[in-house]
């Protein structure tokens, strides 16, 4: 009698489940019947040309756009029924962030960390500023940062708070080559820490480096 070897690894439980998603602006359909899942510690990239609906899907996931049909579950619970928990569990960077003009880069991160329950965020803030290459600019006001530095600060605001799901819209925007390399490494670390990542991107190298799965969207006629 032969002994059965270990079977194939069981598919990981999805953390985020998007099923049959449809979205329309006025009467114009933008997303038709989209289904995908993101397990813990995995990354899914939404790819496709301008206007394909990537941002719209991300907006539905974070609850800032209302699907016309379909279900979006986070850990098995509909996103809309756990609105408060979404705020706790989901870190998102979808738009250019509006910064407070009179708070420094470090103060922004400090404020957000404290708002999310970290009473002693000094070390975390320093580490993140170092990570995103803004240590020397820690005491600068947002208005004095370059557009790439503001983008780095915006990314840091998503990483300074607790999260189980990270939602990013074109995180590579305005980053230089070394910034994109850092981003790829950082997103890998996020996955290793068990965070699920869903991101839209126009950068094939970033997608290749980070995504376990890609969802290809095409503009609807
Ligand atoms: N608020 C809105 N009102 C009406 N139409 C909208 C709105 N937002 C987006 N659209 C349209 O929906 C479609 C999908 O837009 P979306 O921003 O989701 O695409 P995208 O794939 O993220 O594009 P890009 O790569 O340019 O960021 C586009 O045709 C866009 O014009």
Q: Return Rg in Å.
A: 19 Å
Number of domains: 1
- With strands numbered from the N-terminus, the spatial order across the biggest sheet is 6-7-8-3-9
Shape: globular
- The CATH topology corresponds to Rossmann fold
End-to-end C-alpha gap: 59 Å
The strand count comes to: 9
The description of the largest β-sheet is: 5 strands, parallel
Number of helices: 7
- Helix/strand/pairing category: alpha/beta
Mean residue pLDDT: 91
What is the helix/strand order? EEEHEEHEHHHEHEHE
Name given to the CATH architecture = 3-Layer(aba) Sandwich
Low-confidence stretches: none
Keywords: ATP-binding, Nucleotide-binding, Transport
Pfam family, one: ABC_tran
Domain ABC transporter: 16-220
Family: Belongs to the ABC transporter superfamily.
What does this structure look like?
The chain is α/β, with parallel strands linked by helices and 221 residues long. It has a single domain, classed as Rossmann fold (3-Layer(aba) Sandwich). It is built from 7 helices and 9 strands. It starts with 13 loop residues before the first strand and ends in a 5-residue tail after the last strand. The mean pLDDT is 91. Adenosine-5'-triphosphate is lined by residues 25, 30, 48, 50-56, 200.
Task: Produce a short descriptive summary.
By secondary structure, the chain is of the alpha/beta class. It has one domain: P-loop containing nucleotide triphosphate hydrolases (Rossmann fold).
């Amino acid at each position: 009698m032969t002994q059965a070897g270990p079977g194939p690894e069981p598919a990981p439980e999805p953390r985020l489940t998007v099923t049959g998603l449809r979205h329309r602006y006025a009467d114009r359909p933008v997303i038709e019947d989209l289904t995908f899942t993101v397990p813990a510690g995995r990354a899914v990239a939404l790819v496709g040309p301008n206007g394909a609906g990537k941002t719209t899907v991300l907006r539905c996931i974070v609850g800032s756009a209302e699907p016309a049909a379909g279900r979006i579950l986070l850990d098995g619970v509909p996103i809309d029924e756990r609105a408060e928990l979404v705020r706790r569990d989901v870190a998102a960077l979808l738009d250019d962030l509006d910064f407070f003009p009179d708070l420094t880069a470090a103060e922004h991160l400090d404020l957000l960390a404290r708002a999310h329950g970290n009473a002693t965020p000094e070390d975390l803030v320093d580490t993140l500023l170092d990570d995103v290459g803004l240590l020397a600019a820690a005491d600068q006001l947002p208005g004095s940062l370059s557009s790439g530095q503001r983008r780095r600060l915006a990314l840091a605001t998503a990483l300074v708070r607790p999260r189980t799901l990270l939602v990013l819209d074109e995180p590579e925007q305005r980053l230089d080559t070394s910034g994109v390399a850092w981003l790829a490494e950082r997103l890998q670390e996020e996955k290793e820490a068990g965070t699920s990542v869903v991101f839209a991107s126009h950068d094939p190298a970033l997608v290749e480096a980070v995504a376990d799965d890609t969802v290809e969207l095409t503009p609807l006629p």
